[in-house]
């Protein structure tokens, strides 16, 4: 089962990269897209979506880095931490992709921009290595004491 933690670390890392790509594409597009004589970056709704992406990415990054650090320290079992990093990063990737689609509007499904592909890939990340609903159950079971397994050091 220790390989599961590695797989979830990989998924969390991929989700971070995808969310970051959504943010970067959205920032560039928002600065370039002119509506009613001004860049859409000047609209508060667009700014709010950019903010949500940025904060979500940073929070997911900390969870993912913590899991990577635990693995580097020789912690063999970190199921709760792996579930948290994978679930949260995948959810951030999905929300970032949806927010990017809102910013891009109809262009989000155009082959001219990668946003539609990002949204499809983000959904896959919520499913692989144990879907996010399963992760929520596992995390809750650890918090409630139903699961007692703690992170263990390699011997």
Automatic annotation (TrEMBL):
Gene3D superfamilies: Butyryl-CoA Dehydrogenase, subunit A, domain 3 (1.20.140.10)
Cofactor: FAD
One Pfam short name: Acyl-CoA_dh_1
Keywords, sorted A to Z: FAD, Flavoprotein
A molecular-function term among this protein's GO annotations: acyl-CoA dehydrogenase activity
All copies of domain Acyl-CoA dehydrogenase/oxidase C-terminal, residue ranges: 1-141
PANTHER family: ACYL-COA DEHYDROGENASE, ISOVALERYL-COA DEHYDROGENASE, MITOCHONDRIAL-RELATED
Similarity comment text for this entry: Belongs to the acyl-CoA dehydrogenase family.
Official protein name in the record: Acyl-CoA dehydrogenase/oxidase C-terminal domain-containing protein
Taxonomic placement: Bacteria, Bacillati, Bacillota, Bacilli, Bacillales
